Fold each of these.
Amino acid sequence: FSDSASLVCIDPEKIFDFWPHARGLIKSAIDATNLSDFADIENDVLNGDQLLWLAWSGKIEAAATTHLIKTSGKPVLIITACSGSQRERWLPLLTQIEKYAKAEGASCIRLYGRPGWQRALKDYRVEHVIMEKAI
């Protein structure tokens, strides 16, 4: 490991070089929540509709995917998946994704994930709730 990780946004034109190395991390994030379909996320990333971000320190420490969507107001950047080890090393890199979202004119960032993210992301707040009843 280097002293810290750096954030790299993968150019969609080079995604096929990087996706095989990040695919497992993204799949594990999606499998942990079952909030999306991995095949849909993978297809969007490979088609350039979502971006792949890597926390890099000579090796991949974490991977995330983002999707910029249109709403009736300003665009919203959704973090569709995020997974990695040693979160304290790469979580501060989220500010760079926030800067990207602002530069793209997004009004906010939304994260779909496990409730534990609430403890890790102190300046994020719960806006909506997903309720579920097994049938």
Amino acid sequence: STYKYNDLYFDSSWELAFYIYHVDQNISVEREPEKLEYYFNNSKHYYFPDFKVDGKLFEVKSPYLYSKLLILDTLENAKLNCMIKNNVSLITDCSKYLAYIKAKYGKNFLKSFKI
């Protein structure tokens, strides 16, 4: 699913919850702030981390999508190695951010931004 909030696009409700939480806490957060280069099968690819929070890069992935990154000799694994090389922190549990959104805005708030 895709979400649009404040003219920014998000690939999941988890990403949107992460973003709104940081904005509401007055923490500096940028959406897809950098373009990182990596190679797979001698072919150049680009990866855009989901967020930069106070100067640190973050990627939000469900446990299922994270498990895909761990499969050796795949494009996803090459992306994981790029994340590791560039000190990108992986977030695989967004319960804190989702609980915050539900408590502050209600359980259907994120759905209102679904495209």
Amino acid sequence: MICLEFDPSRRVFGGCDLSSTTDLTAFAMVQRGDDGVFVANWEYWIPEDRAEDMEKRDGVPYPRWEREGWLRFTPGRRINHDFLLQDLLELSFEHDIGMIGYD
């Protein structure tokens, strides 16, 4: 979900915190403006088949957040890395991503 607009003429840098089953996978993109102020945006994913269990465990309305566009579900009980890769590729077509760090 992109909340703040990036300058399309400037490069962004990304960082990905990968998960498997019980945590959120997160991807952040950061861009520095001419004024030195940084703009950052995040994307989040959880496994669709675990959303209700995670909602009860964490006390967080993940299904509602997915409907509202605050995060995405990947199919199955584990983070589907092919699905995640497709989303990251789409972001790379929208933004000039200079580098992505990951764990």
